[in-house]
Design goal:
- The structure is a single chain.
- The chain is mostly helical.
- The protein has a domain of 174 residues.
- 72% of the residues lie in helices and 1% in strands.
- Helix 2 packs parallel to helix 6.
- The longest helix has 29 residues.
- It starts with a helix and ends with a helix.
- About 2% of the residues have low confidence.
């Protein structure tokens, strides 16, 4: 072997992780470019018409609601419409770009827990798996959806919360809420963290609506009623009058969730039932003094609360498990366990994406899938109880302070 060959292989050995990062980035981009011409039914029925309405009315159009997305996303569409670009490409460019932020955010969480450099194997593996996840690719490059935006902000919010930097944590939580109402799926674990650790104030939660209001103010200054900021999400809550939409949760297993009658009879009950389950989880955490300052406890609790919302709330779409799917990937790689949970969650979501995007093709019926999904939820609940609730109790800061004070008095006396 010549000295040049030796140097070449030595270079590869030293920079193998960086080369993997670059290779996956290019590969993931190529995969997404192949999906650019694809126009989903959602795009043809909704996104395209929103684009033409917003672009035709100009900046004055921001004074009225177009579509059912929040005001900042409508403002983003307006900005994009000022460029001479195909609307399908415009929507997808934004989502694809944020896919990379999503992957970096997930990698940062793993880096935080494992105490490694960013360009080491675990963070880069996380980046690669998230970026090459078929549901992530289908969501942005095929469906032209933007779920990656709010989930990216949620991951960054968790990252800063674990660093005990509450203000940026809640700003990012507010940004997530600004772009998608489904950000509320993560809210229970933040409330659990507040109630059990006392490491943040209830006032920090006010940052969430304040962030939303600030980002909506440009439209208000244009003449839009201030109360529209709150009416958009209020309207979304009761917009889809179906118990479930192509997601194999509890309702797909027991009843025909597509009927309006079922929704009218049970929608309020589903909210109350979900609230009771989450309240029970909080009670267990309180009783056992579980420590949510520990990264693994917080992530597992976030997985359980997100899964609970997806499983029991009404009007859930297949896309609403997006946050759950990313969280289980992050947890599995960081903790090096529960790989089957991550795999099954993502495969079940993939079934829903395939059914919707590709002419209702159903390789596995939603009924059979719901059996697996419901069973998986109960298994995750078991893991939550075993690994979080029954873990070592959190330390009591007040008791520790009193103990140190007593020790100090003994020494001085």
């Amino acid at each position: 072997m010549t000295k040049y060959e030796i140097k070449f292989f030595e270079f590869i050995r030293k920079h193998i992780v960086l080369l993997l990062f670059a290779s996956i980035t290019v590969f993931a981009l190529v995969l997404r470019l192949n999906g650019m011409p694809f126009a989903s039914d959602d795009y043809r029925r909704y996104l395209l018409s929103w684009w033409y309405v917003i672009s035709s009315k100009g900046i004055e159009g921001l004074t009225e609601q177009v579509g059912n997305y929040n005001i900042p996303y409508q403002m983003l569409i307006f900005i994009l419409s000022r460029f001479q670009i195909d609307p399908l490409i415009a929507y997808k460019i934004v989502s694809i770009g944020v896919d990379f932020l999503l992957a970096v955010s997930a990698a940062l969480l793993v880096k935080q827990h494992r105490g490694e450099k960013f360009f080491s194997i675990s963070p880069v593996l996380t980046y690669s798996v998230v970026l090459c996840s078929l549901t992530v690719i289908f969501n942005s490059a095929f469906w032209a959806q933007c779920d990656c935006i709010y989930v990216s902000f949620i991951l960054l919010s968790i990252y800063f919360l674990m660093e005990e930097k509450n203000i940026p944590a809640f700003i990012f939580l507010g940004l997530a809420f600004t772009f998608k109402l489904q950000a509320v799926f993560i809210l229970p674990v933040f409330l659990f963290y507040y109630a059990t650790t006392r490491k943040c104030s209830i006032l920090h939660f006010l940052i969430v609506p304040v962030t939303d209001i600030i980002l909506c103010l440009p439209a208000v200054f244009m003449g839009r009623p201030f109360m529209d900021i709150f009416k958009i999400y209020a309207g979304q809550v009761d917009e889809v009058k179906q118990l479930q939409l192509n997601i194999p949760n509890m309702y797909a297993f027991f009843i025909d969730g597509s009927t309006r009658a079922s929704y009218e009879n049970l929608s309020k009950f589903t909210i109350l039932f979900t609230f009771v389950i989450l309240l029970g989880g909080l009670a267990l955490l309180f009783y056992k003094k579980a420590d949510l300052t520990k990264w693994d406890n917080f992530l597992m609790t976030a997985i359980w609360t997100s899964f609970t919302c997806v499983m029991f709330l009404s009007s859930m779409h297949e896309r609403y498990a997006y946050l759950l799917d990313i969280l289980v990937i992050v947890y599995a790689i960081a903790m090096r366990r529960h790989y089957v949970v991550a795999l099954l969650c993502n495969l079940i979501s993939l079934r829903g994406y395939g059914y919707y995007l590709f002419d209702n093709y159903e390789a596995i019926s939603i009924g059979y899938t719901s059996i697996v999904y419901v069973g998986l939820y109960f298994y995750v609940t078991y893991l939550f109880i075993k690994e979080v609730v029954m873990s070592q109790p959190a330390s009591n800061p007040v008791a520790e302070k009193l103990s140190r004070h007593k020790e100090k008095k003994k020494k001085t006396s």
